[in-house]
Design brief:
SH3 type barrels, alpha+beta, five-stranded mixed sheet
């Protein structure tokens, strides 16, 4: 069903993306790229060092991975990609994820060899002056999900590898002229030390190389913020699926919001600080349990667990009509749902299995409760710890399928426990003839959709408690077999390619959401280098500390002072990068005349179905 109404704050209209136009103020998502190669050549004030683990407020956006890397299982894509550059790793493209911000325009925004400005340091102190922010110019050479491989501009064309770093395209990369637009700040463009020490005329080189080049459209950051604003706020009362009994709903309250993911605390949480037991993290559009308005459960004719006296007013029937939930209807004739009908479903308690299921309760507006078969041995006896699980879902859920779906796509099915023979291959036709059962007429295609997902693609996958780096290991029809990096083969997950619990690489970094990686003792690190192996050698050769008194060695102190003074003469004229003489190439056509107001109108009118499934 659809989410609550989209809330958008009003800001002033923006024009086209020429260098002289006003840049979008995206301070809220601006960040400093994590330490890799060229960034380490810039002056870094000691007071901006990342706070020690547990040291109060989070580090500034973009440095979150420095802080998290101290934890055993925190994962940093930027460092991982740097130390594993020998591997031909590929990320699933952003435009293939159902709920990815900017997916509809990603191929237009992300043009090869875009020229950008990026934040290097904050509060940089040279020998004579302190700058609030220091930027430099780079060229995007490759995209990896939301991440971009950026080479520093200004190095001579010698054929040698140019220092690069991985950064987030949305929050770390800015259009040429962005630094000059920050009139209220003492900002500057300052090149890396190696460029300053080179004999080439780097100032002329920068201007020449920028002429007639493409840069990032200023609406990228603004569009992202609009697409992330779906109206849910901390303190909102909701109803949510009980993750321990997924046939029931519970009363809850949203207590935290990270983009489209929210944490819902159950009304009866005994330990509110323990997020593993007090509630669950979920995407507000997820098919596997998403928050819905109070009164939703009562409206579909189901029970809910809430505090004594909890009796919300049922929702108007128009609410369900507007969500277009009966997507499987043909000619306005609803799909017939009866108790006892059979179907196939991904087991939400164990996504590694697709099992036979039975409708045990029919609710209103296309909802139902189904009983899911558990794995059995050849004698029909349940495996240790296995049980029949109940699940509240909707007839249009992408997690349920018609009988015979698994046979068509080549996936093993957990058959009904009451099948006539446990020694022969299971066939639905024989089962229906013997038992008299009926199939639920779900209209689904088993054809492989035309998407960009391929075996080996990297992405980020969510469960009820965390998001982890993962790999596509198989594709069967519309289903992706997802393996959490570091996990064993038997724990793979079947997930629909349009699942809102799959995210592009860099999503967690973009939203400052913790990405949980493999443990250090995982066999995963026998194949790949651990990010902790990243040792920037440039750090000891070129990084200059502004606090000159920190060195007791006179020679080293003199070297640092000389280099710091060199920076004072190296401030680049930001206004030159906005001069009319520098022309940019064509902008993405769809944005040629777009304004912020037009983008907002487009997003408001955009269909936001697939919001919740119960």
């Amino acid at each position: 069903m659809t989410t609550m109404d989209l809330e958008v704050d009003s800001t002033k209209e923006m024009g086209s993306s020429s260098l002289s136009s006003t840049e979008v103020n995206n301070e809220s998502i601006e960040s400093t790229p994590s330490s890799t190669t060229s960034q380490l050549e810039h002056v870094t004030p000691a007071k901006e060092a990342v706070k020690a683990k547990g040291g109060g407020e989070p580090a500034v956006p973009g440095i979150i991975n420095k802080q998290e890397s101290e934890e055993d299982d925190a994962f940093c894509w930027r460092k991982f990609l740097t130390v594993n550059s020998d591997y031909a790793l590929e990320a699933a493209p952003v435009f293939d994820f159902a709920g990815a911000p900017l997916k509809d325009k990603w191929d237009q925004f992300t043009i090869s060899d875009l020229k950008i400005e990026y934040l290097v340091e904050k509060n940089l102190t040279t020998a004579t002056k302190t700058y609030d922010k220091v930027f430099w110019v780079g060229n995007i050479r490759k995209y990896f999900g939301y991440l971009a491989k950026v080479e520093d501009e200004g190095y001579p064309a010698t054929g040698k590898e140019i220092p690069y770093q991985w950064m987030n395209f949305v929050k770390d990369c800015h259009g040429i002229g962005y630094c000059a637009s920050l009139k209220s700040l003492n900002a500057a463009l300052i090149p890396p030390l190696q460029i300053l020490k080179s004999e080439m005329d780097w100032r002329s080189c920068i201007i020449t190389r920028a002429r007639n080049q493409l840069t990032i459209h200023p609406l990228v950051a603004e569009t992202f913020k609009l697409e992330m604003n779906l109206g849910f706020k901390p303190g909102t009362a909701v109803e949510i699926l009980d993750k321990s009994n997924m046939s029931m709903m519970k009363e809850g309250t949203i207590t935290d919001v990270k983009g489209t993911r929210v944490f819902v605390r159950y009304w009866d949480a005994l330990d509110p600080k323990n997020t593993s037991t007090s509630g669950l993290w979920c995407d507000i559009r997820s098919f596997l349990g998403a928050p819905v308005p109070p009164g939703w459960t009562k409206s579909i004719g189901h029970e809910i667990l809430g505090h004594e006296g909890y009796d919300p007013i049922p929702l108007n029937e128009n609410f369900f009509d507007e969500t277009n939930e009966d997507e499987d209807e043909t000619d306005d004739v609803p799909v017939l749902q009866e108790v006892g009908m059979k179907l196939e479903t991904i087991d939400p308690y164990n996504l590694n299995y697709i099992a036979a299921a039975t409708v045990v309760k029919v609710l209103k507006f296309g909802h139902m409760v189904i009983s899911i078969e558990s794995p059995t041995n050849i004698t029909g006896e349940k495996l240790a710890g296995a049980q029949q699980n109940l699940y509240l879902c909707h007839i249009s859920s992408p997690h349920i399928f018609p009988c015979g779906f698994t046979n068509e796509v080549g996936i093993e099915l957990i058959p009904p426990a009451d099948r006539p023979s446990h020694d022969k291959p299971f066939i639905w036709k024989d089962y229906f003839e013997t038992t008299g059962s009926k199939p639920l007429a779900i209209k689904k295609s088993s054809d492989i959709p035309q998407t960009g997902f391929s075996i080996g693609h990297k992405l980020e996958a969510a469960n009820f408690s965390s998001i982890q780096p993962a790999t596509v290991v198989d594709i069967k029809g519309p289903l992706l077999r997802i393996r959490i990096d570091g996990s064993e083969e038997g724990t793979d997950k079947w997930m629909h390619y349009e699942s809102f619990d799959l995210y592009p690489v860099g999503w967690c970094d973009l939203l400052e959401y913790r990405l949980t990686g493999p443990k250090k003792d995982s066999t995963f690190w026998k194949k790949y280098k651990h990010p902790s192996q990243f040792k920037p050698t440039i750090l000891s050769r070129a990084r200059i500390l502004p606090q000159l008194e920190l060195s007791n060695d006179a020679a080293k102190k003199g070297m640092k002072r000389k280099s710091a003074e060199l920076y004072d003469t190296a401030v680049f004229n930001c206004d030159v990068m906005k001069a009319d003489a520098i022309k940019l190439g064509p902008k993405p056509k769809v944005l040629r005349k777009s304004t912020v107001e037009e983008v907002r109108a487009m997003l408001k009118n955009k269909k936001t179905s697939h919001a919740t499934e119960h």
